[in-house]
Amino acid sequence: MKLIVAIVCACLAGSAFARGSHSSSGSHAVKAHTTKKGTHVAATRASNPNKTKRDNYSSKGNVNPATGKEGTKDPSR
């Protein structure tokens, strides 16, 4: 019984460590910068690039976790 508890604890600790590393998260940091036209863009997070538009923060049905704003873009276009 103690062995089973130890194995479960080890698995839970391992999965918590993996989530905390951000290596498998669905987003990445975007540094603050100034555009060529002189517009300042604040630091934020963006969803990682992939071949779908359905999981982007700006797509309808999704919410940006940093700002709380709902997506407005149609993901099928």
Distance N terminus to C terminus?
A: 55 Å
Instruction: List how many beta strands DSSP finds.
Output: 4
Q: Uncertain segments of ≥5 residues (pLDDT<50)?
A: 15-23
Overall mean pLDDT stands at: 78
Biggest β-sheet strands, sense, barrel: 2 strands, antiparallel
Shape: elongated
Strand order in the sheet with the most strands:
1-4
Number of separate helices: 1
Helix/sheet category: alpha+beta
The whole-angstrom Rg is 19 Å
Helix content: 10-25%
Q: Helix and strand string, N-terminal first?
A: HEEEE
Structural description of this entry:
The structure is a single chain. The protein is of the alpha+beta class and 77 residues long. It has a domain at 2-47. Helices cover 25% and strands 16% of the residues. It has one helix at 2-20; strands at residues 27-30, 33-34, 40-41, 44-47. The longest helix has 19 residues, at 2-20.
Topology diagram in text:
Blueprint: H1 2-20, E1 27-30, E2 33-34, E3 40-41, E4 44-47
Antiparallel strand pairs: 1-4, 2-3
Could you provide a short overview of the structure?
With 77 residues, this protein is an alpha+beta fold.
Describe the structure using short key phrases.
single chain, 77 residues, alpha+beta, 25% helix
